[in-house]
């Protein structure tokens, strides 16, 4: 998942990107180790 944050100053019409990050979600077991996801 990619998240972007943008800003626009009150006195300006254009927006500009200020930061971007990529998040990866991992399923973990009770010991904190990654585990496969169950098929739905």
General description of the model:
The protein is mainly beta and 40 residues long. The chain has no helices and two strands. The relative contact order is 0.28.
Would you summarize the structure shown here?
The chain has strands at residues 2-7, 16-22. By secondary structure, it is mostly beta strands. The mean pLDDT is 92.
Give the overall silhouette: rod-shaped
End-to-end C-alpha gap: 20 Å
Q: What is the helix tally? A: 0
Category from helices, strands and their pairing: mainly beta
**For the report, how would you describe the main beta sheet?**
2 strands, antiparallel
Give the helix level as a range of percent. under 10%
- The helix-strand sequence is EE
Physical arrangement of strands within the biggest beta sheet: 1-2
Uncertain segments are none
Draw up the topology in text.
Layout: E1 2-7, E2 16-22
Antiparallel strand pairs: 1-2
Highlighted features:
40 residues, two-stranded antiparallel ribbon, 2 strands, 32% strand
